[in-house]
Amino acid sequence: MKGSSPIPPQILAQINDKSVEGLALALASDADGAVMHFQWCNSAFCKITGYDAAEVIGQRGTILIGSSMDQSNHLIIIEKLMNWEHFSVKALNNRKNGEQYWQRMSWTPLSDTSTGDRWWLCSLIELEDQASHEDTVRHLERPVSGREALTSYVEKIGHLERENNRLFQLAKKVAKEAKEDALTGLSNRRHFEVEFKSWVSSLKDGGSDFAVFYIDLDRFKSVNDTFGHDAGDRLLISVAEMLRRLTNETDLVARIGGDEFVVLRPLGQSALDISGLADAIVQEMHAPFVFEGKSTFCSASVGVAIANTTMDAPERVVNDADTALYHAKTNGKGRWSFFTKEMHAEAIAAKRLVSDLLIACENREFVPFFQPLIDAATGSIASAEVLVRWAHPRMGLLPPAAFLETADKMGILKRIDEIVFATLPKKLALIDGAGVDLPRVSINVSAGRLADPNLIHDIKRVGIPPKRLTIEILESVYLDRLGDVVNWTLSELKELGVTIALDDFGTGHASVQGLLKINPAVLKIDRQFILPIVEDQTARELMASIIGIGKSLGMSIVAEGVETEAHARLARDMGCDLLQGYHFGRPMPATEFQDLLIETKGQFWSPEPEITGKVS
C-alpha cells in the first residue's frame, strides 16, 4: 500500500470542475457560528444557486436564503449554525433569478488547529420536485438484513471520515491561499493588514514595542525590462527566501506590492536587533542577481520606524517607515534610513508642496525670468534665457530648485512649460519696448514636453518667430535613447528654423553618439566646468576638450557660470562664442530686463582691450 502524500493540485482542480455537489467554504466568527463570509465555492455551487463565484465570495450565509424558504427551516438553520452543529435540511428555495427548486442543504463545522479559525462547509444537492422525490424513496425501500445494515453503516462511516478529511484539507488550502502571497509564500497584503492591526492593538494594551521595516527594490523594473518577467519573479522569490533566512519566527514578513516587502519585528533589548537586520538586508541585496547565466544588480532601500506606547497614533508607523524609505532613496538608494521627526515634517511639507503645485497650475502662478547671454566677440546682448519662477502666494518667489523635482515626479512639468511659454509674447513685447535688438530667446523644455507632438502646434500658435527661438534640452533627457516622437519633434523644430541647444553638457548621460544623433546647433557647458578654470589647469584642459568636441561638430559654445571678469576673458580666449552668468546679470523679471537693456543700450562689456566689469 502506498504511503500518504499531499493531494495534487490538479486533483483539487478537478473536484472544483467535476463535482456535481455544490460546495462552499465560509470563514465564521468565533463568537457566533451564524456570522460568516464565504471564501470559496466550486462550479456546481454556482450552477445550482445561479450566482457567479465573484458574487458569492465575501457574502454572508444569508445569500442562500430565498423568499420561498419556509420560515421554520430558516429558524432551524440559524439555531444550528449558532450552536456549531452538523445538520441537513430539505427545503424549497430560490436561485438568484427567483426560480424555485428543491434542495438538500448540509452544514459541517470545521476548525484549523494551527490558527484557531473556524469554518463552515456548505453542501448543496439539487433534488427533483418533492412529490417525485418521495415516490422514488418509497419505491426503493425494502427490508434489509442486520448484516446488510451493519455493512452499509460501516461503509458510510468510512466514506464520511474520508470526506471529512478531504474537506478539512480543502479548507486548509483555501485558508492558506487567503493569507499567503501566491508567488513568494510570504504573508500577503490582506493578512499583513490584519496582523498589523493585531500588533497595534496589543501595543495599546501594554504589549511590546515593535519595528516596521519597509523594503523596496531599487532596480526591479530594469530587471523586468532587461531579462523578462520570469527573471523578475525569480528575483522576488529570492528576496523572500533571503528575508526568511534573516528574520526570526516571531517576525512577520509580507509582500504587500509588486516589489515592496514589509517586516514587523518585536523590539528586543538591543538596538542592534533593528539596525543589524536593516544592514543585513541592504548588504545581501548588493550581491549580483544571476538569472540563466546572466548577472545584474538590484539593490534595496529600507525605511525603519518604531511603534511604541508613547505614540499618539501607532497606526501611522507604516507610513513613517515609508517616509524613511523615501529618504533612503533620495539619498542615493541601496541604503537604509531610520524615521525621525524631521522626516515627518519634510513629508508634510512635501504633501503640501504637491497640493500647492496643482493649485499653481490652475492659477497660472509660474512666471518667466530672463538672464542675458553676451556675444563673447562684441560684448553685446545676443540672447536671453527664459527661466521659470513660481510666484507662490504665501512663500513669495521660489526658484526652480524649490519645486521642479517634485513637479517632474508629479508629471506636471509639461503643464508648467505650457504656462511659461504662453506668457512669452507679452513679455517679449515689453522687452522690445527698450528699443534694443534682442536677437533671440532660449527656453528650457522638459523631456515630457519634447515628447509631446503638440509642442510644434503650440510654437506656431504662440506667434514667436521660430528664428528668434532657441529650445534648450537638458543632457539628462538621455540623448542616446531618443524615442520616435522626440526625434520627429526635433526634426520639425529644425525645419521651422528653431535653434536646438544642449544644456548642462557634461553632467548627465549623453554619449558622443547621442550628440551626433541630436546634432544641436548650440552646446552649453555647465557652470561646474567653468568655475574652476581660472585657478585649475586640469579644469582648463577638460574645458578645452569639450569646446573642441563642439567646434569639430560645427556648434556654437556657451559658457555658463561666468561670475568674474577673469572667467569671461578666459572663456572667450578658449573659444566660447557666448557668455552667461552673474557677471552680466542674474535672472530677472521682464520689467527689470527692459530697464537693463535701456541702461546699457545692449552693450554689456568691451572685450578689448579689457573687460569693464559687471553691469548691475
Features:
single chain, 616 residues, alpha/beta, eight-stranded mixed barrel, disordered N terminus
In terms of topology, how is this protein built?
Layout: H1 9-18, E1 22-28, E2 36-41, H2 43-49, H3 53-56, H4 71-82, E3 87-94, E4 100-111, E5 118-127, H5 130-140, H6 146-179, H7 189-204, E6 210-217, H8 220-227, H9 229-246, E7 252-255, E8 260-266, H10 272-284, E9 289-291, E10 294-296, E11 300-307, H11 317-330, E12 336-338, H12 341-363, E13 366-375, E14 381-392, E15 396-398, H13 404-410, H14 413-432, E16 440-445, H15 447-450, H16 454-462, E17 469-474, H17 484-496, E18 499-505, H18 512-518, E19 522-525, H19 527-530, H20 537-552, E20 556-559, H21 565-573, E21 578-580, H22 590-600
Parallel strand pairs: 11-12, 14-16, 16-17, 17-18, 18-19, 19-20, 20-21
Antiparallel strand pairs: 1-2, 1-5, 3-4, 4-5, 6-8, 6-11, 7-8, 9-10, 13-14, 13-21, 14-15
Helix pairs in contact: 8-9, 14-22
Quick overview:
With 616 residues, the protein is α/β, with parallel strands linked by helices. It is built from 22 helices and 21 strands.
